Write the structure tokens for this entry.
Amino acid sequence: MKIACIGGGPGGLYACLLLKKRFPAADVTVYERNGPDDTFGWGVVFSNETLSGFQAADPESFAAIEASFAYWDDIDTHYGGEITHSTGHGFCGLSRKRLLNIFQERCRDLDVELRFETEIADDADLKDADVVIAADGINSVVREKYAAHFMPSIDWRRCKFTWLGTNKPLKAFTFVFVESEFGLFQVHAYPFEVGEQALSTWIVECHEDVWKRAGLEDVSEEQTVEFIRNLFAEHLEGYELYTNRSIWRTFPTVRCQKWVRGNLALLGDAVHTAHFSIGSGTKLAMEDAIALDEALGQVLSADGAGDVPAALEVYEEAREVDCIKLQKAAQTSLEWFENSARYMDQHPLQLTFNLMTRSKRITYGNLAERDPELVERVRAWWCTEQGAPEAKAPIFAPFTLRELTLPNRMVVSPMCQYSAEEGTPGDWHLMHLGARAVGGAGLLITESTAICAEGRITHGCTGLYGPEHVQAWRRITDFVHAHSATPIGIQLCHAGRKASCSLPWEGDRPLDGETAWPTIGPSADAFDAHWPVPRAMERADMDAVTKQFVQAAERALEAGFDLVELHMAHGYLLSSFLSPASNLRTDEYGGDLEGRMRFPLEVCRAVRAVWPAHMPLAVRISATDWLADGGQTAEDSVHLARQLSEAGCDLIDVSSAGNVPRSEPGYGRMYQVPFAERIRHEVDVAVMAVGAIQGWDHANTVLAAGRADLCALARPHLVHPHLSLEAAVEFGQDDQVWPVQYLAAKPTPAE
């Protein structure tokens, strides 16, 4: 068997030495266009927890790597004249050149042929190879040749960076934030050689706009070094900076829908990239190499006979999901640094916590396990800032909206139950909402409740358009107020073109025949194929709907609710006006954002006018349609939030999607929090985050980092209706209100 590898970086070399071990009789050749000691960059960093797989794959190379490591546990954040220290993280690093030399030596020991200064411009030159590995980097020629098959996407980001070295002996992973006359510059630095000849990586990054203002577009390496030496003189302390092709670069996020083609496999940066802020590019490539070796070993015989394309498909399947997860974390980290200027007004403790938890892989809870002292300092500072120094965790700090004070920050998110009779909530709703109220939530918000019969999503949806509804809801609010300290709000909605559907457990599709009713929308455009076309609303329809919202708000007051939330998300009527994907109007209520916002803002102002001044009004929005173009964007939603605030909205509840079925949300834990965070930083309004916030640990993380003021949790409250009581037990929050009937379960302070 012949194995050919295009590219002699760490991933390619590691793959070839592993494959030569597995198939000793194979002819394995690496083709590298550069010399053996040519390399871009300085150090390579790993976390301790990732090393076991490398040791198992090849103990010999791992022993050499381990002997070359510099180790450290700490992260230091330099900002505003202060250094915030964190420990317990466990990192190790070595010179990239040393790593390459180790793999080269190991390859030679195994009789892998290394051909340096040999460029393979076309994989057709390797047509006699049984397996071809394309480890030819970010600018992969092979990937581009077969782009129609691999379907790559390359997202060139908005920051510039340059990769330098320094002889400053660092003892921690070091982040430095310096605000210059041109804007913010930030450093990612870490040691990779210790002792008398200490060396560290010193990566400088800034937004492209800052880079241009600083006049760095056409500078030489020498001029770059001089600029950075002066800018970071205080932090370099007279130590030298070294270059290695240290030009200013833009980081590309590379993703491929396919990794393999016949006997050809992409590996490392050729198939995926991960931003250097999580230090995982080399790790990813080496893990690719292990998976490739295992896949070929699983499918092929010991002499290399068998179905190579099938083996490569096994490789792709084995790596794809883990890679997606890591790339998602890396992208979140990348975007944090792209937008880091927005955090420069945070206290150094909060900035450090925000930085540590940026990728979502580290949370309040597991950071407390690593560094309990730092988390306690963050908790004490944050809770004191919120006027709740005795709160044992951020979730227990009360929060006030107008004259309504929520006892904690965990909110029961609206969850449709589809169990009403002609819009009237019954025993199920009393049980469902009552259980979560006595469970101690900071705020309880009802399911989406229709302002008219035609505005229901299904026949089973609750309503607030008749006196019988007021009476039924009053039964529920009276119970909540009598047996808990939890305020209760109601979400008011008109389903628009998404109305007239069957129950989820009865097909979850548009009704037909006599059970259906006509729908309305901003335009005569159906939500999806086989859905009914709504009637495009006229001015009289808008007036009627506005009146129905106003009447529902008045009934909400009569029914005893403490808060009203207007539903402007998920493709329902008001949401469908906001999105250009669903609002195709050409009059004053369509077109640009100002036109699309006009009617929803009219409704907001009308409801605010009748809802008492001392009581809060919230609005749920879809911050983005998750479309490449033609949809509502995060930028639109920042402007919308500002307009809603001016119209009297006190709380923006930030969700996403739902306007069109072709949306492609980037699901994952806390996946909508960045949209809430942006609004919170750019608009002077309280913000509630929602979306895969999976418990109090996530909520504490979001709150302490300053990403939102409240956290809405849906599914966790279905599984754990007493979530806040459970959290109070976990953290020892003795002043959490318990129902008297449950006091036997409340731990005493001594316990």
